[in-house]
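Quick one: co-fold with NAP.
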Amino acid sequence: MTAGILDGKALAVSLQTALKREIDDIRQQSGAIPVFANIVVGHDAGAASYAKSQQRTAEALGIDFRFLHLAATATQQELTEQIALLNNDRSVHGIMLHKPLPEHIDFQAAVNAISVHKDLEGMNVTNLGEMFLGNFHTVPCTPAAVMALLASSGIDPAGKDAVIVGRSEIVGKPLIHLLLQKNCTVSVCHSATSKAGRLAEHISRADILVAALGRPGLIRGEWVQPGAVVIDVGINSVAGKITGDVEFASAAERAAFITPVPGGVGPVTAVCLMKNGVELFKRQIGLGV
Ligand code: NAP
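Sure, here it is.
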């Protein structure tokens, strides 16, 4: 078997086209445009380049994507105060806090200070808790991208065995709830699964495999169940090249569908972030549900 490629770039373009149409329609009807505030604390070259690429995506969609730069020495209190100002600014519809942060800043505490109505990334504890209860108001964008790619494979997840490798707050844990909502049977593997030598055993049972561990090529193609859907979230830089967590060529021999890295989850994630923000914007101007 040679897997069909789940082309994230193509999916991102079609999602972006639909989103732009929606933003244009709202602007024509009401004159309003979405405004997102991005808080950056200190300077990190990689993060700055990622934020710039998000800004290009946003501006192509007609979103006002602003930056608020704070010095690396800013305190948690100062950051919280800036977030409070943005929460109270009716012209701002979405707020995002960029990582990495200086070590003295507690990311989760800061994100919890962002109004639940303006939480672009869906990482506020209230939004995460709502997801636990089955209410998917604002969903973290990488897991949302995984679900969009899975939907594009045309495979119904109901009753299938899904295995997620990685249990981070930003990817693995929220994805559990999104897959459960689609009536999947979900297993989650992590470093202790590997240490126990049981990763291959779990993966070989996966109808849907999501790799989000950040270990280049650690998931061997021979572990993949024939006919599985493989979604590789990993982004690793190896000798100047970006690679995923799954051995692509050998996994593609067995899988029914597989995402490439780069060009899989990444481009869809960027659009899911914008979609989150547009939903928040619509609710704030009285158009959302
Ligand atoms: P993270 O916070 O470092 O979490 C990694 C997870 O993988 C942890 O749960 C860890 O287990 C598990 N793990 C590490 N080594 C393992 C091993 N040998 N066997 C099994 N599990 C192992 O990482 P993250 O933020 O979720 O990111 C994961 C990857 O996705 C990274 O490559 C990152 O760059 C990429 N990413 C991509 C996007 C995108 O849009 N495409 C977005 C976010 C992240 P423990 O919990 O036991 O430590």
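If it helps, The chain has a mean pLDDT of 96.
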